[in-house]
Amino acid sequence: MRNGAVTGWLLLLPAAALLVLFTHWPIVGSVWDSFYSTPKGSRPPVFIGLDNYQAMVADEVFWKSLWNNLWFALGTIPVSIALALAMALWVNSTMRGRTWLRMAFFTPTVLPMIAVANIWLFFYTPQYGLLEKLTTALGFGTHNWLGSESTALACVIVVAIWKEAGFFMIFYLAALQSIPPSLSEAAALEGASRGYYLRRIVLPLLMPTTLFILVNAVINAVRMVDHIIVMTKGGPNNATSLLLFHVYQVGFSFWDTGYAAALTVVLLVVLAVAALGQFVFLDKKVHYQ
């Protein structure tokens, strides 16, 4: 029995070491650095307590980024999940060409983020982009989609949905294919409509997958930075600046590592609260087979 326990811990050791080295230790280091000033040349960091957090409260760009991230999450998470579920239900049905349709839905997921951003950057290009060609053909005037504060964030949201929906679809498709066909047959014998079967049987059985997808969608909404760097660089007037992009700017453009560490701590707290809230409120509705 003891040898089995030792063997189990030894098998777990490589994964645990990587987890501590690349996840837990950086978190502890960020919390520690958030209480120190940024080292300048030969001057070592100095303990400054909560000064970085006080600066954060007075930072208008931080609050703007936080507000943008909230709207970004509200725009991407429910639409991506609903679209992924609809696509999974579609390609799970018996239809001709469903293999090609699955591949078409999943293709955006395997494309590199920088490539996706450049593709959509071409779509949004004023006067020459594909979107401009369509709006001009329909009689609408030209518009700088990424250069306008009123449309820039919405344009980035569309790109994120296009990139993520196919990825979430794969998980829903796998979950749908694990549902026993006997349930559908029993529902049909009882005279249940397809809508009733979907609402009362399929969706409850998909709740574990939905919870998993929801957690990943929240993480993706907070860690978005690649598209922002390529497409807008946070502009115009910080209209598309998100939390992680603000951390990137402070840490690597302004080289204020102490303040960037404080921003990272707040980012981790936001993620932890969001994940905890999802598990607390949704776990009661999850049916595990």
Architecture overview:
Helices cover 73% and strands 0% of the residues. By secondary structure, the chain is mainly alpha-helical. The protein folds into 2 domains: 1-32; 61-285, MetI-like fold, CATH 1.10.3720.
List keywords for this structure.
2 domains; MetI-like fold; 289 residues; mainly alpha; 0% strand; 73% helix; globular; 13 helices; single chain
- The end-to-end distance, rounded to whole angstroms, is 30 Å
Number of helices: 13
Mean pLDDT over all positions: 88
The percent of residues in helical segments reads over 70%
The biggest beta sheet is recorded as: none
Give the C-alpha Rg: 23 Å
In CATH, the architecture of the largest domain is Orthogonal Bundle
What is the CATH C-level name of the largest domain? Mainly Alpha
Low-confidence stretches: none
What percent strand? under 5%
- Overall, the morphology is globular
- Please write the string of helix (H) and strand (E) elements: HHHHHHHHHHHHH
List the helices and strands and how they pair.
Elements (H helix, E strand, L loop, with lengths): L1 H32 L17 H7 L2 H33 L5 H13 L2 H11 L6 H8 L14 H26 L3 H9 L4 H12 L1 H16 L3 H6 L11 H11 L3 H26 L7
Helix pairs in contact: 1-13, 2-13, 3-4, 3-7, 3-10, 4-7, 7-10, 10-13, 12-13
